[in-house]
Specification:
With about 575 residues, this protein is of the alpha+beta class. The protein folds into three domains: about 1-185, Four Helix Bundle (Hemerythrin (Met), subunit A), CATH 1.20.120; about 210-340, no CATH class; about 345-575, Phosphatase 2c, domain 1 (4-Layer Sandwich), CATH 3.60.40. It has helices spanning about 1-55, 60-85, 90-115, 125-135, 140-205, 210-220, 235-260, 275-340, 345-350, 390-410, 415-435, 530-540, 545-560; strands spanning about 355-360, 370-375, 380-385, 445-450, 455-460, 465-470, 475, 495-500, 505-510, 520, 525, 565-575. The strands form three sheets. A five-stranded antiparallel beta sheet has the order 1-12-9-6-7, with helices on one face. β2 and β3 (about 380-385) form a beta hairpin. α1 packs antiparallel against α2.
Length: about 575
Amino acid sequence: MAVGVVFYFTNRTLTQSRQINQQINEVYAPSVKELEQLENWVVRTHQLMKSWATIQRREDDLDHQEAIDLCEKNIPEQVKKIKAYSQFWGDEERQKLSNLSDMIVRLLSSYSEIRAVLPTFDSYADPMNSMLAEEYFLSGGELEHTYDEARHSLMVLTRIQRETMSEKIETMNAAFDTLNKLLVNIAIVVLLSGIILAYLTSQSIIRPVNSLKRKLQNLSQGIYSVHQTKAGNDEIGDMAKAVHSLITNFERTKEFATAVGSGNFGINHEPLSEHDEMGKSLIRMKNELASYRDDMERQVAEQTIEIRQQKEAVEGQKEKITELYNDLQSSIDYAKRLQETILPNNELILSMFPDSFVLYRPKATVSGDFYWFKQKGTKKIFAAADCTGHGVPGAFMSLVGHNVLNQAAKIYSSPAQILNSASRLAGEVMRANSGEHYMKDGMDIALCAFDEEIMQLEFSGAHNPVYIIRNNEVITLDSDPFSIGTYVNGEREYSNRTIKAEDGDCVYLFSDGFVDQFGGPKNKKFMRKNFQNMLLSACHLPMAEQKWRITETLDQWMGDQEQIDDILVIGVRIKSKY
């Protein structure tokens, strides 16, 4: 019967689990995947269209072609796929999907209008066209609002599908838990039945009665302890009488021990016999505990008052410290989110330089180092910047540095012109905010502009050089020895260095965090010579593997040492367009 019950519940559980698993694999998991793909495409399309509206490009530009494909093909087809899965969703989710479809239609319509305003390379020459296109992306505008609502709806739908899938999995797990409990209970019943049968069998076996009788008589004097047995008219009956006497005496001992354990030290007790060592020990214990209790009550009373006062003081300090820590951590977390918004994403970097890497390791939650990539016409501009300090002060300086680079790059494309303009803007910001007390905080930077049409690399830097590895030789382009924003406009000018690029050149930009890091067997700085040798040993590898090799070298060098500064290394392999 037990086997039949096990078979029935096991078969039912497996059938239910197969049905749930089929729903997960055929409905919910694909729904989550397609919703995430649609979100990625919506985000990518919005970025491409914003670039379309702000950056002048030819009609055959790859970003333009990708934007058109996403708007006219990929996103509409993706919406159809999701609608196919939605027939298995609930009514509320289908309504949300319908609303999402309407928002995506409005988005695609707006993108179509932008493409109509700026259809060709020459159409950017008309300022009115550029102004009309850029108005679509004004903060708080209808397009941005629709885009935010669409992304929110996508995240809500994805979360609902994930939660539904999790509920299904929990249902399946609960069924298996129930089956497991059933099997355990059946096993316990079978085991207990076997024990009972074995016990009944053992009771029928005759034991050496005389030996057991002597042991039970000794126990009646307090030498051993046993449980009471049933009385009879044979030798077992004699043993039962002895056990009964034993239990009576032990009951007295138990009552005495219980009373002493409860703090009743006035109770009297007589040993069971002269051999009753346990009874004698209990009497001695009662007397000692009575004396010890009096002393302890006095000491506990005194210590309780002192501990209560200390606890109140500590709790008050703890609340203040916790409040201050939470406020500080919230501010730092918000600063981190602000800083992350200025850093280019991997998609932008790889679209400009497919074979490249960025090693970015802040010393604290936020960083004074930041990296910057921008496409301007045929030039691909990229930089590694190191602002004064690290942590929160460095992070705020990095926001200033990022903004002035963006402002300068709107007008200039030459690295030296960008740095001169950025230095002027940064100086104005710091002087405007500091009054008579002019801050000397600045920014060290290495900035390159690569024109793939003519295979030319331009460089300008403040304190930070750039390394180019060609044919296993290091070419160093030195920087100017003064920082961005540390001098009055017109006092100094940054120089522009130009070099003919060759296919396969490896270009490295970096801050001083890596070369200044202490470590190694003698706890010294890494230094630039070791840094160049490390790059030479890894330059033949793909950039992704170079990043892994450089990271491993850094970790081994640091060991248990603390990181002393923000670390930033950018690697780019030059590829000929033709």
